[in-house]
Amino acid sequence: MGFLELFIIAIGLSMDAVAASICKGLSMKSINYKAAFLIALSFGVFQAIMPLLGWYLGSTIVGNNYQFSYEIAFFILVGLGIKVIIEAVKRKEQDDRCTFQLDYKEILLLSFATSIDALAIGVYLSLIQIRNMTEPTLVIGSTTFILSFIAVIIGHKVGYQFNKEAEIAGGIILIGMGIKILFTA
Asked: C-alpha dihedral over 37, 39, 43, 49, to 10 degrees?
């Protein structure tokens, strides 16, 4: 597998993390670069680890069915999306939503849920007999980190202008990502 093919796979894998990063940026009143870094780091690390885990599982356990993992990702994303929408609708004033808090538990759950596809790619890489996972791990993780960091900033720029509506859109995006994962499994 060549670098270009691997890079294209990395971009495709990172799109769920990018969408979730945009959602996190939507709730920032002012850009918080430390939070953007931590969000991007979490997504990048999970996207790097999951293909490695999938490769290991694919190399040692042949014929395993990973369908259940997609259902878990679906429920996590839809649950988080519904939570975001409910919180946005309950707010009495639009400015209340602008208080950004970095919820580590939520970021870790999002990182896990958006990296399920990467687990499947790892199994695929084992099936095509990739022997060294250093390059795929670094390319997938760093691509996701960079794109997610940029996406938080883009989400902030767009989200602050549209306030409550943007947060509701972010919840809808999370639900859509969950549905996409369930139906593309």
From this structure: 70
Closest alpha carbon to 145 in 24, 25, 36: 36
Contact 22, 170 (CB under 8 A): yes
Cβ 52 vs Cβ 139: under 8 Å: no
**Chain position carrying tokens 């994303």:** 77
Is this structure's pTM higher than 0.85? Answer: no
| Number of domains into which the chain is organized | 1
Provide the residue type at 34 as one letter: K
Question: Is residue 171 within 8 Å of residue 81, measured between CB atoms?
Answer: yes
Give the pLDDT score at 6: 85
Q: What is the dihedral of CA 32, 112, 42, 3, to 10 degrees?
A: -120
Q: Are 3 and 104 in contact (CB under 8 A)?
A: no
- Digit-coded pLDDT (tens) for 107-149: 898 899 888 878 888 887 887 778 899 999 999 999 999 999 9
Q: What pLDDT was estimated at residue 166?
A: 60
**Structural domain for 20, as ranges:** 3-92+101-184
Cα distance between residue 144 and residue 138, in whole Å? 10
8 Å CB contact between 20 and 174: yes
What does the block give as tokens for 104? Answer: 């580590």
Phi then psi for residue 93, to 5 deg, are -125, 145
